Structures are given as structure tokens and as C-alpha cells.
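@channel sequence for tomorrow's demo:
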Amino acid sequence: MPKIKTLEDAFIHELSDIYSAEKQLTKALPKLARAATHPQLAEGFTQHLEETQGQIERIDQIVEAQGLKLKRVKCLAMEGLVAEGGETIEEIEKGPVRDVMLIVGAQKVEHYEIAAYGSLITLADQLGYSDASRLLKETLQEEKATDEKLNGLATSEVNRQALEAATEVEPAQ
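C-alpha cells (generated this afternoon):
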């Protein structure tokens, strides 16, 4: 970890970290979309890819407006979450149970991003970076909305489909 001595150093480090996370996510989302069986889930991953690209653009705007230089850091948390998604795809047969686990993994990602953006907003506010705070709040709202959509899809359809699929394949006695 680079030396962090000031509040601005902390802001730059965390902004660099979430930038790395979003970049990693742009590579993972198309794979998740292809791995999903439920059409709304696949479409949700595709839509979130577009949103994520917009979120990266917002970070670029913040960097330019504040005259900051991002650090070369790799978000290890996102690396781990993306790896978990890869394991889900490799280890679980395509179908409703995999969709359930893809949603679980995607919600873990969203909760990480919600925490990261919430913290960045606090730092931006304390540093007086009002434009950065406004842009970060836009992203935070998108992340919260994605989490809500995932939760709604899980509770309204996907989890029930997985439960029904499990009862259909119970072994004969």
C-alpha cells in the first residue's frame, strides 16, 4: 500500500482502488451475462456494464476536475469477488441454482461498491470537493438501485425457480 499521510492521499487511494474495481468489473460482467439462464438477469448484467462504463467516466471527470493523479493499485477485494464469480460459473451447472449464486455474488459486489462510494463521498465532502461528491452520489444511487433490482429478481422469481428445480430432481427412493 502506498504511503497515505493526508486526507487527500486517502481520497486518491480509495478513488484509485474503486477505479480498479470498476475496470475489473467491466471484464467480468459480459461473462456473467453469458453464464446467466434467466433472461432478466442476463439483461441486468448487460445493463450494469453500460452503467459501470459511465461510472468509470465519472471517476475520470473527478480526476480531471480536481487535478488528481490516480495511483496504480489493484483492487484485491474486487479481484476476489470476480474470482468467486468465476468459480460459480465453473462449478455450478447452468440453470436456476447457478442464477441464484450469480445474484448472491453480484450483490456482494454491489455492497462492496456501496461501501466504497459512501466512504469516498464522505472524504470528498470533508475535502470540499463538491463536484466530486455530486458525481460520486450519482454512482452510489446507481449501485443501490442495482442491488435492489438484484434483490427483487431473486425474491420474485429466481430463488423460487431454483427451489422448484430442486424438487423436480429429487432422487427416487
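heads up for whoever presents: The radius of gyration is 18 Å.
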